[in-house]
Amino acid sequence: MKVLHVAAEVFPLVKTGGLADVVAALPPALIARGVNARLLLPGLPAILDAVSSPRTVCTFGPLFGAARVRLVKALLPFTQVPVYVIDAPLLFGREGSPYQGPDGRDWPDNLQRFGLLGWVAAQIAAGGLDPDWAPDLLHAHDWHAALACAYLAQHPATGVASVFTVHNLAYQGLFALPDLPLLGLQASFGRPQALEFHGHLSFMKAGLQYAQRITTVSASYAREIATREFGCGLEGVIQGRGGDVSGILNGVDYTIWNPEIDDALGASYSAHALDGKAHCKAALQREMGLAVDAAAPLFGIVSRLTAQKGLDLVLGALPRLLRLGGQLVLQGNGDAALQAAFVAAAQQHPGRVAVRTAYDEALAHRVIGGADAILMPSRFEPCGLTQLYALRYGSLPVVHAVGGLADTVTDASPAALAAHRATGFSFRDANIHALEGAIERAVALYRQPAAWRDVMRQAMACEFSWDVAAQDYQRLYESLSGSGAP
Ligand code: ADP
Ligand code: GLC
Q: What is the CATH number of domain 2-251+467-480?
């Protein structure tokens, strides 16, 4: 079966979050299972510069404001996954984030930029661009790629089915409704039953309404997005899709996230030889200007700074964390007010709180490897990869029991501890008091080194394999084979 994945970012070339890790790992996992998978990406400079063996498949345009568009076929570095790249310098020839300019604002022509991504995807699917290859199925990720599902629906004769994966329902790609004609979609796509959302044009709805199947990245989040609390106003649409919506948990690329072979760490370690972990902790404390103290439980955070991640709760719980003798290291950037509050906390508590606002992949490995525990009090979390990485590094996750966090961390309750099943600490209510309670339990267990090590070993033994996820996607694809035309 031939499958075209469509996305806006891919690790390590362009990454704003976990989406990039998934887009890098899923196609190779599918290829390893015999699926003929390819990827379509926008021609951001970091992508065009890094792919190998590029050749022009075709040129076309003017389209979406780009005078001339070149479709390039190439190979991704490292995995050698075949990739189509849309070379449209006027739309994509911009450094930095795929979504925002250096001023932190969305690019004003995102409608055209991601309209083009969806349009090209549907054209490749319809067999109109590459005479040598066309997919049986199109798999679009997040709102950036969602319009592909609407373009396919506009030309049902192709018979190509589509799958849409929601990585985060909170980012919806909303634009001015009167701009619909710029996309070349029929006027009927502007109706509420189609792409209209509270007077706007919603790219997210294109995926939710027109894909044959909708997946999201954990079973819990698949249930949650059908509720008012987590549905971001789209719960009605999701409920309307009934059994077409399911959850497939993300995996981890253990060739990248593994303390036994991690070049970013000063020492390697494993569940059977934990000594190197203490070295990583001391090195992180030194690097961050924290007191080098093996006895102080070191809490780490690696996160985008957004409301989603519940980091305001960490600010509220910080006095308690420090009174308990803990230290905090935060690596994150984003929301200016949150960033300022954490920087102020670091200034107020030198040697005990450290903050780095850099986006730095190697540092993320050192924080996750060096911390004793990783805090993720997210208000919602579709899957969350950071806690999965933390588990493998024996850095026990402290999580709000929601979405993928609820599905992947087993709380250290007395029963789970007794049964040697505990892998971290979770709390039910998203408030400061509940987070403080989880931190207290973590510190209490940390003071019992044998019990802590036992939980570390359970955590490190967890296996979130991409092969299992790829098998679920493959089954889904096969169930849809030939069902593209309504
Ligand atoms: P999300 O995609 O919502 O941000 P995930 O937990 O799925 O959450 O994925 C986050 C990814 O981004 C992880 O790979 C994490 O290590 C990485 N990350 C987040 N912030 C930074 C940062 N400042 N520097 C480096 N990596 C980061
Ligand atoms: C989104 C979600 C995160 C998920 C990632 C990859 O960014 O916020 O929970 O892990 O996508 O699916």
A: 3.40.50.2000
